[in-house]
Amino acid sequence: MEAVRSLAGSLNHLVTTTAVVWWRTLPRLLVVVLLGWLGYRVFAQLAALVVDVSAWLSLLMLSLGFVVRLSTIIVGLRITGQELQIRQALPLPEEDPRDTSISHLLSLTLLPFLGIYAVFDVVTDAANDIQINYYVFGGLTFERPVLAQLNPQGTVGAWVLVGVIVGLYVVRRLIDRWFERTGFRPLGLLAALVEGFFMLIVLMSGRQLLVRLGNWVDERAFRVWLDYPSWGLQQLFAGLGIDISDVLAQLGALWWDVIWPGVTAMVVEPMLWLALAALVFGSQVVSIADLWRQGEPVGVGVRRGRVEVGDRERGLALGVQEAFFGDLNDKYLPTWQSLRLVLGVGPAFFAAFIVCYGVLSTGEELLRRGLDSLLGGHPAPFWAVAGPPIDLVVTALAEPLRWALLATAFHACLGHFAAHAGAEAEAPTTLAEEAR
Amino acid sequence: MNRRWAGGLIAVLACLAMIGLHTWLGETPREHTTRVALGKPGRLYDSTITVNSSTIGQALYSDNLFVGRSGVIFLAVNVTIATDGTRRSLDWTVGGESNGRSFAARDPITVPEPGFRITQDVVFEISPDDLAGFTLTVLDRAPIYAYDPQLEIDLGVTPDAAAQSLEKDRYAVVRTTRGRVEVDR
């Protein structure tokens, strides 16, 4: 019963506080949503228009659109975070040395953000939209490949693609270093843009390289060895009169068609978004212990280049290490730690957050379907015009709620950790309680 | 049950509930379904389709040519399609549904050029149990997939009507027509 009470309490806290934060910040959030939506749409349409000029340029436009979208999310989360005074709830020193600029947050969150979008096919959908818009603008044709131009098996050779990917990585690292030395903000945005472009190429073309690698493996003689265990298993179960292939196929269908899509959409997605929110609110936080460490927190972004070293060779070695593993240190590690952070809150809170997020996502999808249904069946040119306004309505309603929920959830995480760490400071009071 | 296990159970149940919700929601539909009554015209992109009647039997003749005899039953649905818009649709999918099962039509449907109409039969081979509640589905796919219109036309066969019809016509001969294109006036 205590677990149920705890769940009910967490649900009540999440729903009421989210509603209060949403209502108080709604005008500002709506402006942010509108600007972000407009920016993304402009770049997405431009991406479709410039395909004939160059598929690379089109991809660059799309990456600009994603950078705009992520900037919107960061600004929205910061607004809701300000309302909840999350920064004040973090036990940080007076003079916080961390870089909280948008450009820094962009560079920090772009990887998990595009990762989330890639996992949930948003990147693929965006690429499909480019293709559809291209056909709507220019007429249906199969003579001109749209983004298929970026397929390494197509007009672009595999080695050219690998060269572009490596080249972009090096360029981005150089811009990063330049930005660190000068602190010139536009360079941070440029680095984020290059990274977005780099990641989109990796996601859209790199996948084809993996397919090509898989095909190469399939054509090798040793590939047959991998089938031996399954053949043995089939023979073993055939003796018992069981068609194990059929059983496994049915189990596989159940898992991949029913369970796994539900798990990714309703469990993995909300936790990844909360991890991303944690990155935005408490960037460079490495662990729970760091969160509550007295004094200056340990930042993962502290460059090895800034560390004073005894001899030149060691400094050089650290420089090389920074060049090759800097990304791991700066981006992957914080993402992983954020995920650990939000997963460690407790089952009742986890359940409440999953339920709230699931209901919000379902409501969003039902609203979208309802609006589509109101307009009825129409061809693609109609949806090219009607789709964006519908998307704006749904986004304007759902996104602010999502940001408010994520901020509230992270705020609740902090309260939970404060209670568990036995911190002297009182657990943050909720805005819902304040409102009462 | 200790507190930790109870908490874990709550979390697992919440996850299962949300996965169930997601499964119930299903994938975003790619077609907009409109229900149309028997004898009433239903609108697709540039065409109007009207289901006139339906007949059942065991032996099938198409334009007086013997086609075959069924171990179950043939269901012939007579439809009129008029292309009263400016373009002829190219990708029609005609099927049937009953008792949660889907059926494919034996032959593709003929869609006339703009300004013309055709009355033809769509034939299904179904189990007698699936006659009651049989629904004809017609989907008009645009060249670029979007949110295309689909019609669901309930043939209006109640269980009682199905029983009577089976008793009377189960072993009858079904005479169908592939139709002739006429000017749509």
> Average pLDDT across residues of chain B?
90
Largest interface: A-B, 40 and 36 residues
| Structural class based on helices, strands and sheet pairing of chain A | mainly alpha
Uncertain regions of chain A: pLDDT < 50 for 5+ in a row?
284-310, 423-432
β-strand amount of chain A: under 5%
Q: Any idea what the shape of chain B is?
A: flat
Question: Radius of gyration of chain B, rounded?
Answer: 22 Å
Report the span from N to C terminus of chain A.
27 Å
Number of strands of chain B: 11
Report what the structure shows.
The complex is a heterodimer of chains A (436) and B (185). Chain A is mainly alpha-helical and 436 residues long. Chain A has 14 helices and no strands. The two termini of chain A are 27 Å apart. Chain A has helices spanning 2-49, 55-84, 86-89, 102-119, 122-138, 158-182, 185-218, 228-238, 244-281, 288-291, 312-343, 347-375, 380-421, 431-435. Chain A has one domain (2-435). Chain B is of the alpha+beta class and 185 residues long. Helices cover 18% and strands 46% of the residues of chain B. Chain B has two helices and eleven strands, in the order αβββββββββαββ. In chain B, β3 (48-62) and β4 form a beta hairpin. The model of chain B has no long low-confidence stretch (mean pLDDT 90). The interface between A and B is large, with 40 and 36 residues.
